[in-house]
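Task: sequence design from structure.
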């Protein structure tokens, strides 16, 4: 190999080494920052969609004259009464937002609360108010569950709000009890795939699903 060829070969090797270094740095960046940016992108997409799409009105919204959270939650949830430090409204919009406090001397003066944990505790309680306590006997629901579709910080007239959108699922009480009895009496249809399918299809057919918005005034945590 003559000197010119040798020199060109060395230059090529150096360029390849620099390229590999760049690739390695990019891979490390993806590992350390990419996940966070992916979460940020998902959040931005949620914000964009939440601005452009109208959430259907909650069909199980509590009536206007329903007692406020401060008045009723401790009564309905006595085991966690010392964590029901919610004032304000039921959170259906910013004007009736739930007010979450870091400290609440009236309920539990010795404990500092975690705002996000309280918000999700409230979500669970409002769903139960909507689908159990506010319903007549025979018209209530079982197997209540929800999943979070989006969680964002919004400022409305300078006031900070946590906005949470969830999807709720539940089953009418009577149908659920019938399905449960049928399932248990046939030993979960272990040896009857057709019967199992019928039960599961009926379960899916009677399931209710709806979206629900929650507005939490978090001024106390942002001060």
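Answer:
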């Amino acid at each position: 190999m003559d000197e010119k060829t040798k020199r060109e070969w060395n230059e090529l090797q150096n360029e390849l080494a620099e390229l590999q270094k760049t690739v390695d740095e990019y891979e490390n960046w993806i590992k350390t920052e990419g996940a966070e940016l992916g979460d940020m992108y998902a959040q931005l997409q949620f914000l964009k969609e939440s601005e452009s799409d109208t959430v259907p009105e909650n069909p199980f919204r509590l009536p206007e004259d329903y007692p406020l959270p401060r008045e009723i939650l401790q009564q309905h949830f006595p085991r966690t009464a010392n964590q029901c430090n919610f004032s304000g409204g039921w959170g259906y919009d910013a004007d009736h937002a739930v007010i979450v406090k870091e400290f609440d001397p009236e309920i539990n003066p010795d404990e500092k609360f975690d705002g996000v944990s309280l918000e999700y505790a409230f979500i669970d309680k409002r769903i139960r108010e909507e689908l159990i306590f506010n319903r007549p006997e025979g018209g209530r629901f079982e197997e209540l569950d929800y999943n979070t579709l989006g969680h964002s910080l919004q400022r409305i007239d300078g006031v900070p709000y946590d906005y949470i959108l969830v999807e709720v699922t539940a089953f009418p009480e009577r149908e659920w009890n019938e399905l449960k009895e049928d399932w248990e009496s046939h030993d979960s249809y272990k040896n009857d795939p057709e019967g199992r399918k019928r039960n599961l299809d009926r379960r899916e057919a009677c399931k209710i699903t709806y979206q629900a918005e929650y507005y939490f005034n978090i001024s106390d945590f942002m001060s």
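Residues 1-53 form one domain.
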